[in-house]
Amino acid sequence: MLRQLRRRWIGLLLALPVLVTGPLSLPASSAEAPLSTESRAVASAIPLEEITATTTQVASGLKRPTALAAPDDGTGRLFITEKFGTVRVYDPATGLASAPLLDITSQVDSSDNERGLLGIALPPDFVQSQQLYLAFTALPDGAVTLARYSLADARLEVLLQQPHADYTNHNGGQLAFGPDGKLYWAIGDGGGAGDPFDSGQRTDTLLGKILRLDVSRSCGALPYCIPADNPFAGVAGARGEIWVWGARNPWRFSFDPADGSMWVADVGQGLWEEIDHLTRDEQPGTNLGWSCYEGPQVFDASQCSSGARYRAQDFYYSHYTGSCAVIGGQVYRGRQFADLAGGTYIATDYCTSTIWALRPDSNGVLRQAAIGQMPTQVTAFGSTPQGELYVVNDLPGGLHRVSFAHTTPTCQVAVTTNVWGTGMAVYLTVTNRGTTPINGWALEFPLPYGQAVISDWNTTLTNIGDLYTASDSGYNSAIPPGGSITLGYLASHTDDRSAPGRFLLNKASCARTGS
């Protein structure tokens, strides 16, 4: 999914990867009370590989849904934005209402694939104010727009616009109120390919940024205020609204209600998709690296500065299995599956629909696993006030509830590493935890960027990009129930000495232990 010619069917609003040559280096009841802070902070101790996520469709008939939000008003409703400028209401008791909650189609430029009504956020005082916030591309010229809408009198008030006329892609659009009550808004780098405006590494533009605004009041001529503790507030030549910079198209970000950390999913150019987990302390002024970097790799050396500090990615994956655009999700903090998935961040990819699960372990190491498949072309996640997760998908346009189940992988991979200088040896012990013999095996895993295999033993290693497959050597092709085989490889490394983070044995996820 690397080239523009696939843009005809890829679907809605995502920065489709374009292969560009650059310098290559290295359902709870609505009546339930929200969880307490103490309850939210508890993370499941069950390994990620023992979790399976599934979805259940609860509504159909949506027209290219793009985002969803849930009012904390005891109704159990979900508000769902549609690309063309409407907001629909889903009620778990009565289903999807035919009449929209609001209709601003006359204001929205929904031309091309990525323009339209892109985001929605409900303020903490929504029940009293009956106001909500919308992000959309506006007529007549596609300006990326933040507006406040009053349900009481159907009044739309534009608060901030960023010109975006040259290209129709990379509009961002995510809106969310943070734990501090401020409104956060993501805007893409201006579109095209390769950051033609050098937006990512500039602070004099809102393109390629996540903004932080105080929309509860106005300051001077602005219908909002720039918080005094924003990192560029008062800095000459910089936009004070900027909170996080160096982004390409941060289509979806979210806050963990337990600790206020921010999870940012930034859609890649043509090689890498990335997810960044920013604590509250490190968020202000974080530089995600685009377009000096795409994921872990230098993309455009001319955009790299010797004095800059770029934030390394917490998770990244390549396009070699057909991936095309990361769809950032949320940390599960609901009650129904708390013992199983509590504290787990869930995301997906628009093209492969793989469900990614990420969660820090007790040592702060971010564990990763693929735990299922989403419906085709998911565009956004949302959660109820009680923390239960939902997703919407683009075509054919449905709403789906996310559930989790405990499963037992039939394989386990124990990892041991021996690292020195610029080299490392990695030993993988594969155990058959099932009840039937394995006759013939292939172990798949991604190699961290900057590592290269020099030799291997007890297997034959092949690769496509960063994805490696270790196949049996004939004499060790049979693994009886409870039996194990050990294989390994010698590799060089640059600055990443980590072992592979996830494994598939004959296409099935394996439990992972060790370093």
UniProtKB/TrEMBL annotation:
For this protein, the record's Gene3D superfamilies field holds: 2.60.40.290, TolB, C-terminal domain
Does the keyword section mention Signal?
yes
Q: Which domain of life is it from?
A: Bacteria
Query: Which GO BP terms apply?
Result: polysaccharide catabolic process
Q: Write out the GO MF terms.
A: hydrolase activity, hydrolyzing O-glycosyl compounds; polysaccharide binding
Q: Which residues form the CBM2 domain?
A: 404-513
Q: Which UniProt keywords apply?
A: Carbohydrate metabolism, Polysaccharide degradation, Signal
Q: Which SUPFAM superfamilies does this one have?
A: Carbohydrate-binding domain (SSF49384), Soluble quinoprotein glucose dehydrogenase (SSF50952)
- Per the record's keyword annotation, is NADP included, yes or no? no
What name goes with this protein?
Answer: Glucose/arabinose dehydrogenase, beta-propeller fold
What is the organism of origin for this protein?
A: Actinacidiphila cocklensis
